[in-house]
Design goal:
six-stranded antiparallel beta sheet, 196 residues, Thrombin, subunit H, single chain, Pdz3 Domain, globular, 2 domains
Length: 196
């Protein structure tokens, strides 16, 4: 494993891939990624050979795969928690303008009317810095962490608003299956599903 939580690849709405330099080839997609103890830690889904150092592979973390499996068994479909915000990364310029120490967190650019976020009191321009006591580094990390929670789950979110920390208790809504589709980027990655 060379990195965890890789996102911004354009493969899926919820990205938090394990990056590895293990020798993968087209056709290995769907196969397990094992650790040195022989335990499955991920499911291989894509490769790229655009890195000058060689081919890089990406795998879905096993906890994310388990969540999807359990949802399919229980409901026949995937039910994801829905916070109800549009978010973006904190750029260095934004961090400076907002008086933040560093460029981490997720800036709320829009709050969906009637959503869990609006009901809890979260506003546009809030910077989400913690979810359930764990730091939020980026918008994609927040999206992935909320995406593996069930509707009705109560979460605690800490935001920076006007330079002050504020804590909100939010009960997640249900994400519509049509929300948040992200087209794949074939120019960036080559998919490697089983049978191809």
């Amino acid at each position: 494993m060379t990195a965890k939580g890789r996102s911004g690849l354009g493969l899926a709405t919820y990205e938090g891939f394990i990056q590895t330099d293990a020798a993968m080839t087209v056709g290995d997609g769907g196969g397990p990624l094992l650790n040195l103890d022989g335990k499955v830690v991920g499911i291989n889904v894509a490769i790229t050979d655009k890195d000058p150092g060689g081919r890089i592979s990406f795998a879905i973390p096993i906890n994310m795969a388990k969540f999807v499996y359990e949802q399919l068994i229980e409901h026949g479909t995937i039910e994801r928690g829905f916070l109800g915000v549009s978010i973006q990364d904190v750029s260095p310029e934004m961090a400076k303008a907002l008086g933040l120490k560093d460029a981490s967190g997720a800036v709320v650019s829009q709050v969906v009317e009637g959503s869990a976020a609006e009901k809890a009191g979260i506003r546009t321009h809030d910077v989400i810095i913690e979810l359930n006591g764990q730091p939020v580094q980026s918008a994609s990390q927040l999206r992935a962490r909320v995406g593996v929670l069930k509707p009705g789950t109560q979460i605690e979110i800490v935001v920076l608003r006007d330079g002050k920390r504020e804590t909100f208790s939010v009960t997640l809504g249900k994400r519509s299956p049509l929300r948040g589709a992200v087209p794949a980027s074939p120019d960036v990655l080559k998919g490697c599903r089983a049978g191809q």
